[in-house]
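pls design
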């Protein structure tokens, strides 16, 4: 139940103008969503228009492949043209 509230909160913040390109520990916040293996949270960042450098996009795929039990996040990245 708490996960749903976290996703709702992040989604609400992004919808109200929050920056999807926010960084945490000098990394894009979307990396943390991938580390938590949370496809809904990753999708919220993708829908909000997160922009990463080419190197960061490559890192995103590597991180997704290393962290996900299934191909859910990798498929999401492909679906959104990454």
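designed seq:
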């Amino acid at each position: 139940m708490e996960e749903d509230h976290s996703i709702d909160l992040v989604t609400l913040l992004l919808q109200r103008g929050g920056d999807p390109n926010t960084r945490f520990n000098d990394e894009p916040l979307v990396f943390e969503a991938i580390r938590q293996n949370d496809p809904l949270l990753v999708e919220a960042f993708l829908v909000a228009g997160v922009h990463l450098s080419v190197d960061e996009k490559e890192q995103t795929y590597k991180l997704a492949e290393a962290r996900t039990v299934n191909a859910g996040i990798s498929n999401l990245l492909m679906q959104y043209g990454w």
